[in-house]
Amino acid sequence: MAHIIVVGNEKGGSGKSTTSMHVATALARMGHKVGALDLDVRQRSFGRYLENRSAFVRREELDLPTPQLGELAEGSDPLTPALQALEAECDFILLDCPGSHTRLSQMAHTLADTLMTPMNDSFVDFDLLARMSPEGKVIGPSIYAEMVWAARQMRAEAGAGPIDWVVLRNRLGTQAMHNKRKVGGALETLSKRIGFRVTTGFSERVIFRELFPRGLTLLDLKDIGTESLSMSNIAARQELRDLIQTLDLPGVKVRF
């Protein structure tokens, strides 16, 4: 069966679609068959990203490895048929969830073999994972962590395997080091209490916004004629390489 990767967080603007696109495309470029579903039926940022890629490849007559974008079905259960259609031919299926609480997102979390939760490195985003006292002490899990816990319980009752939950600290900056340390310390404390791993995601870079209209990722730049990469682009590729290694997905050896 395909290994299901879910990218989820109940807050918008945390980098879910950028993370989804780069992880899915990296796996495809390493030779894996990758399916993709965008569960945000209104904004569809991930779906549009993949559609932009397909259009750019056709227009420029390029051969770029591309995840297969599936379509949600009609009816009361749009997710199961869509997954079944992709599972027959995919090694991995990546589901990008909306930045809000929906039934589709709940269903997706119960199916996750690997759950990636991108978050901006701030206590605003941290509040979705845990409640804190005014003194900065972790009081207990918050709304999103409680949903993940419920998904884990449902998987256990169904005899499915555990969810490998990885929290990504996105947009880490060189400034505000005191706040950075406080968020990092709180995440490490919480990770031991509710069971997730913490890793570094992507820094804030203009290149990510520039790539979207053509559906490209950092790994495609040389294929479209970019002769030399800037130091920022090289650093971003290393961030992606580190992320793929940290995810430790079955059968994946990083080759880029």
UniProtKB/TrEMBL annotation:
Transmembrane intervals: none
The organism of origin for this protein: Paracoccus onubensis
Gene3D superfamilies: P-loop containing nucleotide triphosphate hydrolases
Phylogenetic classification of the source organism: Bacteria, Pseudomonadati, Pseudomonadota, Alphaproteobacteria, Rhodobacterales
Protein name in UniProt: ATPase
Pfam families assigned to the protein according to its UniProt record, in alphabetical order: MipZ (PF09140)
InterPro entries for this protein: DNA_Partitioning_ATPase (IPR050678), MipZ (IPR015223), P-loop_NTPase (IPR027417)
